[in-house]
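This part of the workshop introduces the protein records we will be handling. Getting from the letters to the tokens is the skill we practise here. The record below serves as our worked example for the rest of this section.

…
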Amino acid sequence: MTITRWYRTALNVGNILGSIVSRKFASRPRDRVVVRRDVPWTGSILEALEPRIALAASTTTGLYALADAAASQAPRPALLARIEKVAAAAYVWGLPAEFMYRFANYNELVTAPVNTLAYSMEPAAWNNAATNAGDSSVLYINAELNLTRGALVYTIPPTNADYQVTQIFDNFINVVSDPGTRTVPSNAPESYLLVGPRSPYAHRKNVTLRGFTFPVVTLDTNRGEMLVRLLADTLAANGSPTSVENTYNTLAKNFTLNTLRQFQANGNQPVAPKSYGLMTPTAEQLQRAQRWQNTPTNAVAFFKQVGQSLRLNPLPNRLTGMGGTPVSSLPAYLTPQATARRLYFVPSAGQRSTLALFRSIGLTSTGFRIPRGWGPAELDALQQGFENGKNAVQAKLKTPPTSATNYWSYINHDFGTYPNTPSGYQYRAVGVIAGGFPNLPIDGLYAPTFTNSSTLAPLNGNNTYAITFTLPQAGYASYPVTGIEPPLALNAGGSPIGFWSLTLYQPDSSEAAAPFLSQASVLNTAYSTAATPVLSIDTTANTITIPASNLGALSASTPIMFGAGAGAYGLTPDAPYYIASMPVLSDGNATFQISAQWKQDLSSNGVPIQYSGGPNGIVTLSTPLSASTPLDLGVIQPVSQLGSTQIEDGQLKANDGSVPGFPAGSYTIWLSPTLPNGVPATNWIPTPSTAYLQSIYGDSTTLNTTIEPMIRMYDAQPGDMPPSILPLPPGGNYPDGLPSSYLFPPLVQIS
């Protein structure tokens, strides 16, 4: 008997015994968890409810201790105090399941039907939905997966030509598979069979069907998410080989998702979609989608969504999929669970005892019901616990960093897959509010910063900040190495495989889709060109007509600019304007009105919400177009990020060494409300300032100028090849407590 077969047999016996215990347990009066009275409630609730999980918890780091820290200190009757603690813990544990359920409902109404790839030619921007904390340095393809309907075939193009990574997430945002340039380098396309946990192929590494052999990817829950990231120079001009347009047409369109029946009926070949465009939601769909845009503020509504998510996605066990397989024999594209040592188990196996803790508040695998006999006091306690859980996760996300990381908050391990322990549940809840779908750090590492160095004051868009990256050296005498360009893994030719970028966001704890990209990014037009001739100006209708095909997709809120002749028509050259509504297309031309401002919706915290709002007035056009004074127009490419792609293309300018602190050959990225004196516009990311926001919203509205810069690294240099941002290998000659042998340079406020 092989070790895998032996282990499966042992697990089967254990599951049978466990089911007997569970039936005995569930038959207790009122179907409640029995609370140990010998454990004080001032400690971790895990210790009081579940001794087995208590082994992984402590009063300072456990899941419930985290909730305790955010809870009210007012004395409460024992029952209500217990409801608060359990509800707080259930929020932290259940947030990923709620997010996946809500996000899928939203996307199926406004983005694409289930099991359909959503291709977007637009990089993430302030005026499109993108994905949570969208990265403006990449093109995204995503799909909501439902594998109860049968197997799917996912085909990817060769991975060696262009950087790509596909993350396949289960219902708890664990990465179960990540085929891409790092894991499966290849010069040929590959077709994977995607199956659910109940598929007859779920236990297979590969399977041959009708003469075609598929590598198998098993999702450990019925539903999940696929998110593809493709390297694209999102600030390159159209027509450039590295442009978004070229990446979209030559790379993105080669990804396909088919049913197994479709694939086989086409002679074991992928079937291209009828249309690559995103769906155009109706007004009725947009209305229905509103309820799914944000996490419910009511505890009962939230836990009902968690319960529905659990009902649709039964928790996997240790026999699900390839459970019991030696880790050493896993295919490279399958992701081991966070605690993997010798044997592989699907990442979300092992949560059943945790879920059992929440029965006392009505949350089980069959859904959520308010327990019998509860009244207003119990519901108030449930709501308070829900709020405590939210506050705890926000506090965990914004734990003040230290000088050890130059005040950048990054985790170079334990993201992407999460141990089924209190700390693991904390991290994955933080992952949800930090952006929804965190990569494995080895594929993509994210590092935000929230504070101004040692003062720990929030970063403010009214200020000017700079971050300088110096050139790498041939060798280093000591570690950590600070301030060089983020070190990336290299291919056989010595060129970087991945890329890095710095993106500017506005954080907002009241909105699930935050942090948001800022509309202020349109203020930098250095990467944009006005080269499309305006064909006519209608001064009666206040409309402009242009050749539609010259600029790609245009829609309401598209930021545009005019060239040098704008002054003759009462317009300002190189300043942002916005298309006020969907352009009217006729005979290959597009006609539209323009606005000088776009007024987004504001959150309760005074932060402009991404992908919202409407024009703030229509520009009056009083001068017809004259043949003697041509007028050119272009689409603005918002500058919300800058990084290695702009360095490689020669767009980001190097320092000449004439200013102290900015050595020759180094690259400085500036974050400020206006372009600093002497700074190349190509090196500037505009920030939302009070003056800018008041020009749109007035001075009688609460406005928020807090900013959150984030550095992303895709395919970082391995940790055993210093300098590296990834964990240090054991046994190296490094200082104690060092998080990595490379540190990001500090973000410095400039007076």
